[in-house]
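#struct-pred

JT: dropping the chains for the assembly here, can someone run the whole complex?
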Amino acid sequence: MLPELSREEILRYSRHLLIPEVGLEGQRKLKNSSVLVIGTGGLGSPVALYLAAAGVGRIGLVDYDVVDTSNLQRQVIHGTSTIGKLKVESARDKLIDLNPDIQVDVFNEPFTSENALRIARDFDLILDGTDNFPTRYLTNDVAVFLGKPNVYASIYRFDGQVSVFYAKEGPCYRCLFPEPPPPGLVPSCAEGGVLGVLPGTIGTLQATEALKVLLGIGEPLIGKLLLYNALDMSFDFVKLKKNPNCRVCGPNADIKELIDYEEFCGVPSHDHDEGSAGAGLDITAPELAERMKTNHLKLLDVREPHELEISALPNALNIPLGELAGRLSELDSADEMVVFCKGGSRSARALELLASAGFKKAKNLKGGINAWAKEVDTSLPVY
Amino acid sequence: MTILRIPTPLRPYTNGKNEVSVNGANISEALNDLTLQFPNIKPHIFNEGGELRPFVNIFIGENNIKDLQGVDTPITNGEKLMLIPSIAGG
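RK: done, full complex below.
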């Protein structure tokens, strides 16, 4: 039995009730439905806002982060007044203000192999709005194991992808991407940036697909992948087929339970630009400042040239990480060298590359130039 | 001559180009031509053994070459090739 709508709800959803594809019955279906939004960031913001506004009866929010100033360029569910607050609480308050008739369940914890099945079990639909590969593979496998549709979207700079991965009726995420890219090949948004409106465009498409699946209307993107590029304003569609060799949803699947996704992807399950090169290979900003007083150190900045306009260290040689392998001849392996980037992730990868090329005296500036700006030279901005 | 769409994450290795013209009668030849024109892209598409990396998806028209004849899939005139990357941002 579907729940009834109150007089207030009938007024609130009147523009839905006028559409025959939704109507009173569809609106009652939405009231009866539940969705789990994993991540309350760029994608999670518009997704949760529109699904709440549309009257989805119960929305689960999973995130363990707090609202940061640098989130607000795109994460429109949060606000300046909620900086420093838990994201799930900031988002819940906004949703309840938008629609007090819905229930919002918050999970202030990272989505992991230990808790994912417990959290996702009681929802009809999973929306993947995470920002990293390990959590994307985890989300996919959870959806496959629980037999639920996974409404997928991801973004990078100007590019977006949307699909509905539903192993019962079509391919899953692993059918398309059996393996993650090697660590470092595909930069994250914290490293590579993202156009603020992009998650708005892509997140609203994701919310659209979720509503179609919940209502059982239209043609959801099952077996199709939408590719969007904001610069070209291009929308391309490609067909996706079930991979007969898929390790989670294929006939001979050998992955039967959740695995260690950080190990599988070789990267941490968060998108914070806080790289470490490992024990003994990092140097902190205050340590570097001290060393620079007495020693002659080479400074290697592996950021992109346009980032130098934001902040820079004097006398640092700039070789972007992508060019480093081809420009090693500009460096001397006998030099003591400190490598840095914005937050320490790219420089940690640069250090690996340098070590494999015989540069044994290089160290990684922990926390990058942002740490230097916070702890040594506060005249520099943090970005 | 076929147009190959390059995704944003791989554009640093194609001098920023979003589309590249490649020659070849099949996917293998077209990719070989791509890596001759832009040698820096090679390690991002092929592994050390010269095989396509599993996370690289190549589509001809709207079909994945994995669902056709893999790198032996012939290229017919006018069909666009697309490299589809894994991206994870959210």
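JT: nice. The interface with chain A takes residues 7-9, 12-13, 18, 40, 44, 53-55, 57, 59, 62-64, 66-67, 82, 84-90 of chain B (CB under 8 Å). Helices of chain B lie at 27-37, 42-45.
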